[in-house]
Amino acid sequence: MTYLLASGVLAAAKPVIPDYGTATPCVTHNGMFCTSWFLHQWPDVFGPALVQHIMLTVIAVVIGFILAFAAAIYAYRHNWAGPPFAGIAAFLYTIPPLALFELLVPLTGLSTLTVEIALVAYTLLVLYRNVLTGLQEVPPDIKRAAIGMGLTRTQILWRVELPMAVPAIVGGLRIVTVLTISLATIAAFVVDAGLGAPILKALQSPFNTQFIGAGALAVLLALAADGLLLLLGRALTPWARSRKAF
Amino acid sequence: MLSRRQLVRAAAIGVAGAVPLAVSGCAGATSTSKRGGMITIGTKEFTEEWVLGELYAQALEARGYQVQVKNNIGSTEIIDRALKAGRIDVYPEYTGVVLQVLAKRSKLPKTAHETYRQAKAFEERRGMTMLQPTPFQNKDAVAVTKDYAEKHHLKTVADLRKLGTIYFGEYPDNIESSTGYSGLVKTYHLPNVKVKSLNIGLQYKALEKGAIQAADVFTTDPQLARSNLVLLTEPKNLFGFQNVAPVVRKDVYHRHPAEVWHTLNAIDALLTVKAARAMNRAVAVNRLSPSQVAKKFLQVNQLL
């Protein structure tokens, strides 16, 4: 144990230096991809980073979708609101991501909140445009038929217009999800989370396996998310499938 | 086959379930809170700091405190602002750096102890305090490749004067500093030495590639053992003394039990140069994560 000397400086206790083992030749020579090291670090480093990354992305896309969806429906009903909404979303979209993160830090701190605000800001433009365009492109004949059947405006929106807009909406979601997955790697500048964290930490003493491991996970995550949304879009629009299945 | 409505509802429920999970899934906040609440530890942008942060955090967590670590906050000035603003409560800092970067001193004390004393006094005037310093120092030094040193017969920093225009790799914090690039040029009269701003850790590659001929390095850098570099002697002791001592805001210091600060002091007392190099090496060479490295060190020293 330690004790204070009269001078107020601690006497150094004798530390036990742990044996950290020896690095494999692949790790020592910074090979292209050291699989055994990657698997060894999966439970402590890459697994948690992947889960955090998925969470960052899902929260941002869900909140962004709720906001953009509400704004698009409002703009669809009230023509005046279209241009200002689009203007705000476009303005947010043009801010360089790193600058936006840094601008938010004084306001919301080095927190997940900061990251999410920025990520949500980048989802709005594409989602808003796609939902609105999807609604506007429903053929007028169909709308007239729905009115003729005695449906109210709200019924038409939910039963006719939105289902017709699903392909456009899912298309927007696919773009935004892939965008958010890549932007969320920059979040590591603000919070020590997500797949950007191992990349950022390996910058000082470059280690290929760490770059490639984290980078490949981000790419695979983007592909998987894109594929899932594609399937979701198909499941939501059974009428759009070919009738050859009979 | 599910109907479309059921599918939409299932998707909505799935998403709604995921959000609170994510919000509650904050790292490391599982231990019971003691009086004083959450302690937020910040670290600067390099390996040694991350290991220190993990050592402090894991030891405190094991004693039942609520701790979160914010790694990689940035340079001295940035992390100092974060501490003043209350975004972090404590972070490991180098005694000489406090005087050089924050107090903007051009003249540094002549001993390690005096450096610590003055750094602590400076921090105390600004509403912070410093805990006990580590035995190890991580000082700046000027490195050149072995081949280059032999070819041009370089022994001391002053020998750089004999060369033509050369480039010196320096981290952004330390370019304008009287105890960094600017100070070197002035003290040793090196008008031929131009600066290249490189973030900490990138200077080794640049030296190997020949993009720079000399660089500011740290004495506990594990790369020094690995690569073909030599350190030039620096007779005028411009770089000063650099022990580590945690900087804490005074309000935080008084809010938490003394056990918290005793724990950090006990850890720091164990950090000899050998221990610091071994841990830096485990991160840089064995590529273990700072948290794994810290955990093992705490375990073998019976601090967990």
List keywords for this structure.
heterodimer, A: 246 residues, mainly alpha, MetI-like fold, 9 helices, 70% helix, elongated, disordered N terminus, B: 304 residues, alpha/beta, five-stranded mixed beta sheet, three-stranded antiparallel beta sheet, membrane (chain A), Osmoprotectant transport system permease protein (chain A), transmembrane helix (chain A), transmembrane (chain A), transport (chain A)
Which helices and strands occur, and which strands form pairs?
The complex is a heterodimer of chains A (246) and B (304).
Chain A: H1 25-28, H2 35-77, H3 82-94, H4 97-108, H5 112-136, H6 140-148, H7 153-183, H8 196-201, H9 208-236
Helix pairs in contact in A: 2-5, 2-7, 2-9, 3-5, 4-5, 5-7, 6-7, 7-9
Chain B: H1 4-24, E1 39-42, H2 47-62, E2 67-70, H3 76-84, E3 90-94, H4 95-102, H5 112-125, E4 128-130, E5 140-145, H6 146-152, E6 166-170, H7 181-188, E7 193-197, H8 203-209, E8 214-218, H9 223-226, E9 229-232, E10 244-249, H10 250-255, H11 258-269, H12 273-284, H13 290-300
Parallel strand pairs in B: 1-2, 6-7, 6-8
Antiparallel strand pairs in B: 3-10, 4-10, 5-8, 5-9
Quick summary:
The complex is a heterodimer of chains A (246) and B (304). Chain A is mainly α.
